[in-house]
């Protein structure tokens, strides 16, 4: 209507997480809230050297308009890494460089979703995904997570609905829950989607941050026909470049290219060349091993503190990688109330309700362990245990 | 529908311009087709130094997740420059950093457009704008351009329609036509839009590339209430960073922030810091003066060649800045046919039809003068004149 915003804007609100992050400006606050990688492991000097070489050797190329798909050698690197680490054969032209994997979510939604289409999401699901999809006015259908991944019985039912269009999965160390799909669940999910012509977004930014157990195949590897596999340099190099990618077969890629052209022509080319130079001149595996070891140690301290200090009625997940674990309070407790109490004790986290599309999850919360030192984790978890106990007494 | 792409994808096609650019890979071809700034004027060494300082002094900050609006000091610089150069008072929080101004077009369309809304566009209009808006399924209403800007009588009529939502204007050295709005037209446009509660996108990437005449106020400066003013570093620093901005008042900015969060969280932060460092350590005005002088000289040669070599039935615009001029062939000639003939002579340009939303413009074409040396302009224009004459004889 004249002078009015679009309909889609009536469904959206500002990110609650981004609002929380403002509280964490206070240096006395220990934050388990953000989803931030640990900046102590950013490869600053190697990136500085890479940038210097790019400006010196490829300045005119780096600074000019560039192809929509992205820098070919960088796409070839990504394709090669899929082959080496997952056994998937990927052509470089099946990789589109995006502004972080968040833009991957937006572009896929843009080419797929009409208003009213059903988007099947894990419950809980990644808030940024819910926000990206909301702009295209779908109906969300939550599918519960179990210990070994999404509940395939519920998924089977949901996928059969004639309006079902897309399933959104984070199979490795999910944000927010830390849950990982078993091999069997991955294969079953692929079969259910194929049976029902459902597209898949497999959002996989944490894959390389596994510190326990063994690598498992991508869901996409079982059937690539309708699969969009999203990856990112944010967790293994640095998020400030906003550099991610979509891996998809040619018929899907054709549509993504059209959407990408209209959205922003192409991704930052200077940064693509810097990251590619960095990858050529450095040992990425060694770098990732350092991050993995650090996050593993931090996760172990957090788990030990929960086991030691939290009331036994509180349950939690045991992630095999990534940056998050998930806490479930006794059903009568509200994580939003706990947030207020804990903030007074100078410790914060993200309440779980915003990760649910159906108003559930009020007694759940997300803890980030990647961006807090061992000492601070000990202090922060002690404070959080204190706050939980105070609430349980009051309840 | 199950297994199908979204409705919006049935309206889109790959950019014809991007297809043309493939022809220009041949080094014998002289191209007036691309919309590329001249890479000889990229400030490569100053940017190299700026990048080095950013990694050395602000590495952890630059590489981490960052605020959605963008780097505050960079936004303050942009706001300050509006004050100095246009007299507009702009708050830094009225600036959102985007991935080039192309993303500005997408985000504004995202928050404004419902299917069927009327988008009023100049005829001809910028192809990238048409592509961005098409994804939101509007109805396009073309409004002719005259020598002093958009036809305000036609705009008045179109704006009165109850479905009219948005007018898209490029008032300075328009891409593709090179036309500039007069002061009177700017003021009249603002009034027409206010009378009808129509939003404005004022796309202004070329403002600083004026080499003739005097600076004119932005349309937004007459009434900012529903105005989105888009700017870019692509033409005054370099396009490879994909760094632009939207300037809009708070009630519009609130919605843009929500859209930006869902779309890609925030723009590349490393590049924001590098550009800001570059702007602090260098004289931007001196740099722009160099670009301006070069483009002015190239534009003069192109105009001289047209006057000397083209048949007198061919008319053309005389841009006061920017990168393009616009040629109109006699009505019986097709610029698409001319493209084929000219490509055989190893010279290319962009036919005008794709810049029109109503199937007109078949006898028009766009010539870029920014990215070709004086010598090549002479040779290329001679070849193009040859091709036109061959076609006129044949017609």
Description:
Two copies of one chain form a homodimer. Chain A is of the alpha/beta class. Chain A has two domains: 145 residues, Aspartate Aminotransferase, domain 1 (Alpha-Beta Complex), CATH 3.90.1150.10; 237 residues, Aspartate Aminotransferase, domain 2 (3-Layer(aba) Sandwich). The first copy, chain A, is 43% helix and 15% strand. Chain A contains twelve helices and 14 strands. In chain A, β10 and β11 form a beta hairpin. In chain A, α2 crosses α9. The longest helix of chain A is centred in the last third of the chain and has 26 residues. The mean pLDDT of chain A is 96.
List its salient traits.
homodimer; 395 residues; alpha/beta; Aspartate Aminotransferase, domain 1; Aspartate Aminotransferase, domain 2; 2 domains; eight-stranded mixed sheet; four-stranded antiparallel sheet; 14 strands; 43% helix
Approximate helicity band of chain A: 40-55%
Number of strands of chain A: 14
How big a fraction of the residues of chain A is strand? Answer: 15-25%
Instruction: Report the largest inter-chain contact.
Output: A-B, 85 and 85 residues
What's the total helix number of chain A?
12
Level-1 CATH class name of the largest domain in chain A: Alpha Beta
User: What is the molecular shape of chain A?
Assistant: globular
The stretches of 5 or more residues of chain A where confidence is low (pLDDT under 50) are none
Q: Give the CATH architecture of the largest domain in chain A.
A: 3-Layer(aba) Sandwich
Counting helices, strands and paired strands, the structural category of chain A is alpha/beta
Number of domains of chain A: 2
- In spatial order, strands of the major sheet of chain A run 2-9-8-7-6-3-4-5
Main sheet: strands, sense, barrel of chain A = 8 strands, mixed
